[in-house]
Amino acid sequence: MNIKTTAAWDKFKESDITPEEVYQDRRRILQQMGFLGAGALLSSSANAGVFDIFSNDEQKAAFLTKALPFAKQADYDHLLYGALTPESKIISHNNFYEFGTSKTDPQENAQDLKVQPWKLVIDGEVDNAMTLDFDDLLNLFPLEERAYNFRCVEAWSMVIPWVGFSLANLLKKVGVNSKAKYVAFETLYDPEQMPGQKSRYAGGGINYPYVEGLTLAEAMNDLTFLSVGLYGKTLPPQNGAPIRLVVPWKYGFKSIKSIVRIRLTDKQPPTSWNQLAASEYGFYANVNPEVDHPRWSQASERRIAEGGLFSAKRIATLPFNGYGDIVSDLYKGMNLKKFY
Ligand SMILES: Nc1nc2c(c(=O)[nH]1)N[C@H]1C(S)=C(S)[C@@H](COP(=O)(O)O)O[C@H]1N2
Ligand SMILES: [Mo]
Predict the structure, then answer these.
(1) Which residues pair with 187 in a beta bridge?
(2) Ligand in nearest proximity to the CA of 241
(3) Contacts of 106 (CB under 8 A, 6+ apart)
(4) What distance in angstroms lies between residue 95's CA and the mean position of ligand 2's atoms?
(5) Can you identify the CATH homologous superfamily of domain 7-331?
(6) Is any ligand 1 atom within 6 A of the Cβ of residue 298?
(7) How far apart are CA 172 and CA 219, in angstroms?
(8) 163 CA → ligand 1 middle, Å
């Protein structure tokens, strides 16, 4: 293993790193001790083996990730519909246009992203605006593990074991005031570090910084998660270090990465993909097999790293990505074809 040590990360030792096998074993032990639900042991690294022979996602001199302490709290494992996707796929098949528009670009180009120091500002319609630093992100709230179905609007999917905390915990801490109706999110803007931000062409046409938004009710739902890690370790840059949103019932583009600002507002905030192509990407972006993208069907999805050598397995897409029992009430009476 070729671990790059940077000054920022020198307090973490190589022994802190938990390989996927150790992680899986830890999950097995936790399950035997009764800490994980029955659905928790869905993973099999064996799934990855044959398929991986033909992929070139060898690990490069990597950003240093650190093992995180976490406890199983809210348990959504029973809503997973497939095995955990191997870590090697989760960190090598990414969308993070700030680092390039092909799936392998982020792993290739993001390894030097500086996450310490980091500042996350929470402001707008709140009682106590706050600025969190890197240590706050990992320490302010008890961390929990949440394995979630993850569905990109491009019709591929994974199952990812995130570590983090509910956004609601943070919103309660800052105290949302009565004018707040939406939550706006913003990614780091730093063209020196993020080559995709240097030109509209390099960055896929997006007008940076990347921005996203949720209604306040969506943001307060317990499923809505701020992730600081995956597979038991801090996030690698390509997955949105040091902190990113995960909204598992929505298409992946809502799950904004490397967040520097969370602002409570009274108006619906602009969102990057909607600004780029409003007829293709809506504000809501709830996973919906019955509402096709103008250029492709959303009825099924390719499950990354499952299904054999030359084709990923195709599986049916579920309404709200399998989380309808928890979130469909948020959209009662709403025309989901119109508000896509
Ligand atoms: N800042 C930023 N956040 C982003 C993106 C991006 O390009 N820039 N891509 C989105 C899209 S389209 C998807 S599918 C997910 C991918 O997350 P992953 O690479 O961790 O799987 O991140 C989302 N968040
Ligand atoms: Mo996506």
Answers:
(1) 259
(2) 1
(3) 94, 95, 96, 99, 100, 237, 238
(4) 6
(5) Oxidoreductase, molybdopterin-binding domain (3.90.420.10)
(6) no
(7) 11
(8) 17
